[in-house]
Amino acid sequence: MARQAVADKRQRRERGSISVDEIINGAFDVAAEVSVDGLSMPLLAKHLDVGVTSIYWYFRKKDDLLNAMTDRALGQYDFATPFVEGQDWRESLRAHARKMRQTFRDNPILCDLILIRGTFGREATLAAFQKLEKAIATLVEAGLSAEDAFDTYSSISVHTQGVAVLERLNDKSTDAESPRHSGMSVVDPETMPLIAQLTQKGHRIGAADDINFEYGLNCILDHASRLIDAG
């Protein structure tokens, strides 16, 4: 009976019978279940039904695999994000920022790889700078100086990615059953009437929410508009 059980057991795939794409796809599947931090070579090997040495044949360490996943993730992110149009730079830049944030909210693995880990390969870095060059040129066409165009896009990128990271960290904290303390419980309507009134309307201090995101985005866009008018 024992011999029959061994014979019936599915045979492990041989080394060389798996491709790089299969490994990367499997890594995303595992990361979706256990997070990027929880991803390991043995766990991935078990998921793909191969020996762990088959994975090390292509990726000598986990960082190499994460770099490949990041390059793949950046391709998905760039494809999903609308670009800045010169004729209606303000609204297209607003849509660009909103879509950027939503992409990271909808895809936690992208956020972990691209924003929190933040290590890119040469190819991905080159592609990112090529897109940055195009964005700056578009804003210069709209009336900003090259310096102001760079600073405007950079500020929106930092603001949007910062909000996305805070949202992701908050989600991780909540998942770990230790939600972050908002501080709203100490608000006393008698001594803090203004804060109490505003928090009842949904305003939060330091929170990565829609209100704070849109306010910061509008401030950057308004400043850029003033620079264009002044120019």
UniProtKB/TrEMBL annotation:
Which keywords appear in this protein's UniProt record, sorted alphabetically?
DNA-binding, Transcription, Transcription regulation
Q: Which SUPFAM superfamilies match?
A: Homeodomain-like, Tetracyclin repressor-like, C-terminal domain
Every copy of the HTH tetR-type domain together lies at 17-77
Annotated protein name in UniProt = TetR family transcriptional regulator
Q: Which residues bind DNA?
A: 40-59
Chain ranges passing through the membrane: none
One Gene Ontology BP term is: negative regulation of DNA-templated transcription
The species is Mycobacterium cookii
One matching Pfam family is: TetR_C_1
Q: Which GO terms describe its molecular function?
A: DNA-binding transcription factor activity; transcription cis-regulatory region binding
Please name the PANTHER family in this protein's record.
HTH-TYPE TRANSCRIPTIONAL REGULATOR RUTR, HTH-TYPE TRANSCRIPTIONAL REPRESSOR FATR
Instruction: Cite the InterPro entries for this sequence.
Output: DNA-bd_HTH_TetR-type_CS, Homeodomain-like_sf, HTH-type_TetR-like_transc_reg, HTH_TetR, Repressor_TetR_C, Tet_transcr_reg_TetR-rel_C_sf
